[in-house]
Amino acid sequence: MTENELATIAVDICYKIHTTLGPGLLESVYEAAFAYELDKRGIAYTRQQGIKARYEEAVLDVGFRADIIMEKKLLVEIKSVEHLEKVHHKTVLTYLKLSGNKLAILVNFNINLIKEGIHRKIMGELL
Question: Which CATH number fits domain 3-122: 3.10.450, 3.30.310, 3.90.1720, 3.40.960?
Answer without folding.
Answer: 3.40.960
